[in-house]
């Protein structure tokens, strides 16, 4: 009997109710594997010809969902019978015996020997977010192209041991540990990285696996046979996780009501100050968001962030302009997408919407992460007021509980407050971090960084470093660290701010505001511990290409994806 075509081969996507399944479905569609359906029951598992189990979020909630759907036994039987199974992230982790992610030890499917524990590193940020390489552990033809970069986002990992060796397909190094990044045995393949977010490399991994199980007798996809020897110590002390280049698209409606990418100087997005005085200032229009996003993804952006910068004033629920934009982009762009603006509890037209419901809309439209600005400052102040006792109510807690910490970015928009010796004493008494910086005139001065809300329109009595510490406690997985003074100036990032925050938290920090060229990316990566650097204006105005930034990084020995 001849094999089914790509468009008729039936694929069952296990939908346990969390995670961004849409990205995977979009990836399948782009590969012409269009005969997919979501499944949720044991009967559907038994009937399936090929299961994909995509998962982001927490191990414990994934296992609880599988148990409440009563599919655990059916899934175990399915995998043990060597039927086609492709697991992604949690879809790989749950194959192991257990995890420490949750209250106590959580039992997994127990197919592979070993536990899934938190990274023990003290030298690198956790979660590990970004592009990393894999090292082959088997000979033969693997669906994972060796040496290529894949997108990872996780805090927990399984280690290779003598008892799971036969499963280990690739390993990856992070923070001095070598962990399992993919497993394979017969028709079962699973990976820690996200192929649906790993650009063309990721799509080729999905395609090559599906082609193989669709045409099992094809000679073009031979099976892996021989197992290489596997050293159970770190293979490399050199960090292989790439420093990411992120592009931000500040989006708003212009005066004619069209959704445009705009960009300000120190957050002022109107044309010029002179025009403004004449009352004619227009919102700067730097292009159409979808077109630009696609151009940047094709041009090598490691991640794209969309920010609805006027969400503080609009009716957030009735007007979520980024939802359609995200849907459109996630069908065409296979790198991580973050969306921010207006994510908070909302009272609109007499109805209360929880922040997680607002976030749900974005995740369902294809976002991988959401970014929370103003509400994270409010939540930090509340946490301090309550003596650092969490109540589970903040937007950060709500969203990280459902989607995992890696899905929650906090965007901090601080302004410098310059102080003299006396002011320094006062600021430090208030708990603010004061550092020596160079001001816009090139003078050395002291300052602290005051947190703001509503895109810098209002300040709050808390500094950026304290906000960073509080949001980490509340369950944020990453910080996008802007600086209003540096925004749009092209003079480089606020290095002292980046140092102060990266020294205070263990989660990854994305440097933002002020990039004027490749030299500033190199500088911020060399001099601070940030995991990524973001720019907007230089890309939108076409002054520098992402490739040129990455060339500068490579020339300076900064690990990047090119
Ligand atoms: O507060 O949760 O509703 O989220 C609102 C979001 O919108 C926040 O993330 C906030 O940073 C953002 N935002 C609000 N107003 C502005 C504005 O510009 N008027 N944009 C704004 C912030 C900052 C960066 C910018 C970098 C790099 N934009 O995204 O792109 O500074 O710029 P550069 O490379 O040109 O220097 P909420």
UniProtKB/TrEMBL annotation:
UniProt family annotation: Belongs to the HisA/HisF family.
Superkingdom: Eukaryota
Domain Glutamine amidotransferase, residue spans: 13-201
Reaction(s) catalysed by this chain's protein: 5-[(5-phospho-1-deoxy-D-ribulos-1-ylimino)methylamino]-1-(5-phospho-beta-D-ribosyl)imidazole-4-carboxamide + L-glutamine = D-erythro-1-(imidazol-4-yl)glycerol 3-phosphate + 5-amino-1-(5-phospho-beta-D-ribosyl)imidazole-4-carboxamide + L-glutamate + H(+); L-glutamine + H2O = L-glutamate + NH4(+)
GO molecular function, one term: imidazoleglycerol-phosphate synthase activity
Residue ranges of the TM segments: none
InterPro entries associated with the record: Aldolase_TIM (IPR013785), Class_I_gatase-like (IPR029062), GATASE (IPR017926), His_biosynth (IPR006062), HisF (IPR004651), IGPS_HisA/HisF (IPR050064), Imidazole-glycPsynth_HisH (IPR010139), RibuloseP-bd_barrel (IPR011060)
Keyword Aminoacyl-tRNA synthetase: no
Keywords: Amino-acid biosynthesis, Glutamine amidotransferase, Histidine biosynthesis, Hydrolase, Lyase
Pathway in which the depicted protein is active: Amino-acid biosynthesis; L-histidine biosynthesis; L-histidine from 5-phospho-alpha-D-ribose 1-diphosphate: step 5/9
One GO term of the biological process aspect: L-histidine biosynthetic process
PANTHER family xrefs: IMIDAZOLE GLYCEROL PHOSPHATE SYNTHASE HISHF (PTHR21235:SF2), IMIDAZOLE GLYCEROL PHOSPHATE SYNTHASE SUBUNIT HISF/H IGP SYNTHASE SUBUNIT HISF/H (PTHR21235)
Protein's name according to its UniProt entry: Glutamine amidotransferase domain-containing protein
């Amino acid at each position: 009997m001849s094999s089914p075509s790509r468009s008729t081969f039936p694929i069952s996507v296990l939908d346990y109710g969390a995670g961004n399944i849409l990205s995977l479905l979009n990836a399948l569609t782009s590969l012409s594997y269009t005969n997919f359906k979501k499944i949720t029951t044991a009967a559907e598992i038994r009937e399936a010809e090929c299961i994909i189990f995509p998962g982001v979020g927490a191990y414990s909630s994934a296992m609880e969902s599988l148990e409440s759907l009563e599919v655990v036994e059916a899934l175990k039987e399915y995998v043990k019978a060597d039927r086609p199974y492709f697991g992604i992230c949690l879809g790989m982790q749950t194959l192991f015996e257990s995890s420490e992610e949750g209250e106590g030890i959580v039992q997994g499917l127990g197919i592979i020997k070993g536990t899934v524990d938190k990274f023990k590193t003290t030298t690198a940020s956790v979660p590990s977010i970004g592009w990393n390489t894999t090292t082959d552990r088997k000979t033969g033809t693997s669906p994972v192209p060796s040496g290529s970069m894949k997108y990872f986002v996780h805090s927990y990992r399984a280690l290779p041991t003598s008892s799971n060796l036969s499963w280990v397909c690739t390993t990856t190094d992070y923070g001095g540990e070598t962990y399992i990044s993919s497993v394979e045995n017969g028709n079962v393949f699973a990976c820690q990285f996200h192929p649906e977010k790993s650009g063309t490399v990721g799509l080729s991994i999905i395609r090559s696996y599906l082609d193989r199980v669709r045409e099992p007798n094809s000679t073009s996809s031979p099976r892996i046979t021989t197992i290489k020897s596997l050293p159970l110590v770190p293979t490399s002390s050199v960090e292989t996780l790439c420093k990411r280049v992120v592009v931000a698209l500040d989006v708003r409606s212009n005066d004619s009501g069209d959704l445009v990418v705009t960009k300000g100087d120190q957050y002022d997005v109107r044309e010029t100050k002179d025009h403004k005085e004449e009352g004619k200032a227009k919102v700067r229009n730097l292009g159409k968001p979808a077109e630009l996003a696609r151009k940047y993804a094709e041009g090598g952006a490691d991640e794209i962030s969309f920010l609805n910068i006027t969400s503080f004033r609009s009716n957030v629920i009735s007007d979520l302009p980024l939802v359609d934009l995200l849907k459109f982009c996630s069908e065409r762009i296979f790198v991580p997408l973050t969306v921010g603006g207006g994510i908070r509890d909302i009272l609109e037209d007499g109805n209360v919407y929880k922040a997680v419901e607002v976030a749900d809309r974005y995740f369902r439209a294809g976002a991988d992460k959401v970014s929370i600005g103003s509400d994270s400052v409010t939540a930090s102040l509340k946490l301090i007021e309550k003596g650092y006792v969490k109540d589970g109510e903040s937007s950060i807690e709500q969203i990280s509980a459902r989607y995992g910490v890696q899905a929650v970015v906090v965007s901090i928009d601080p302004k410098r407050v310059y102080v003299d010796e006396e002011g320094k004493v006062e600021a430090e008494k208030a708990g603010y971090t004061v550092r020596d910086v160079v001001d816009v005139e090139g003078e050395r001065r002291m300052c602290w960084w005051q947190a703001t809300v509503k895109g810098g329109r209002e300040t709050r009595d808390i500094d950026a470093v304290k906000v960073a510490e509080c949001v980490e406690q509340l369950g944020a997985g990453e910080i996008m660290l802007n600086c209003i003074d540096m925004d749009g100036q092209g003079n480089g990032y606020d290095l002292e701010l980046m140092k102060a925050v990266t020294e205070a938290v263990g989660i990854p920090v994305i440097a933002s505001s002020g990039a004027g060229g490749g030299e500033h990316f190199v500088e911020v990566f060399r001099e601070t511990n940030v995991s990524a650097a973001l720019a907007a204006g230089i890309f939108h105005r076409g002054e520098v290409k992402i490739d040129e930034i990455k060339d500068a990084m490579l020339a300076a020995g900064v690990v990047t994806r090119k």
